[in-house]
Design a protein that fits this description.
Layout lengths: L1 H6 L1 H32 L4 E4 L2 E4 L9 H27 L5 H17 L6 H8 L6 H21 L3 H25 L2
Antiparallel strand pairs: 1-2
């Protein structure tokens, strides 16, 4: 892929520019997972770019917090899986930023966003599964999806370093925006 990326600079620019909407959409879709589960359980939920919470300040039944927490990571894995299916069927590089960003987003949040504050860590703690169990499961599943997609598209580790840089910039942009909007 590196040769193709060097030859077709326009394609490279398009792929990199895709990371801006992919970053925002990914965070929103992850939070939508929490929101839809909370609403389905009968709670009136509030929604922002990087957070979802029950409007009343608490869930209507005990134990719903775990179920709502699981919704975000499940939707993240679902989104990655759907775009892997697009890659499998059409072989399009344009779907790869979505797949890659899902893995990066959860990794970035877990390792740089305060591990204990993240959904996977909270679920593990609430279910007494050990600190890292749910996080490890989610990250391994997302990594395997990225591995399959990159194999299908013949994207090597060096090429993925470009996606890593763009994912970092996308995450920082979303987090900065969320911080500005929450003021």
């Amino acid at each position: 892929m590196t040769e193709n990326m060097n030859i077709d600079k326009k394609l490279l620019i398009k792929i990199f520019l895709l990371f801006i909407p992919v970053s925002y959409a990914s965070y929103l879709f992850h939070e939508f997972g929490h929101w839809i589960v909370g609403e389905a359980l009968g709670n009136k939920m509030a929604y922002s770019l990087n957070n979802v919470w029950p409007q009343s300040g608490h869930y209507i039944r005990a134990g719903q917090d775990v179920i709502v927490l699981v919704g975000g990571p499940v939707f993240t894995v679902l989104l990655s899986t759907l775009f892997l299916m697009v890659i499998e069927k059409y072989g399009t590089l344009y779907a790869y930023p979505v797949v890659f960003f899902q893995m990066f987003m959860r990794f970035f949040s877990l390792f740089f966003g305060g591990f204990g504050k993240q959904d996977e860590a909270k679920v593990s703690a609430l279910l007494h599964l050990g600190s890292f169990t749910v996080a490890a499961i989610v990250l391994v599943v997302l990594f395997l999806i990225v591995l399959r997609a990159s194999t299908r598209l013949r994207i090597n580790w060096k090429d993925n370093s470009y996606f890593l840089v763009m994912s970092t910039l996308g995450s920082v942009l979303v987090i900065a925006t969320a911080g500005i909007l929450s003021r």
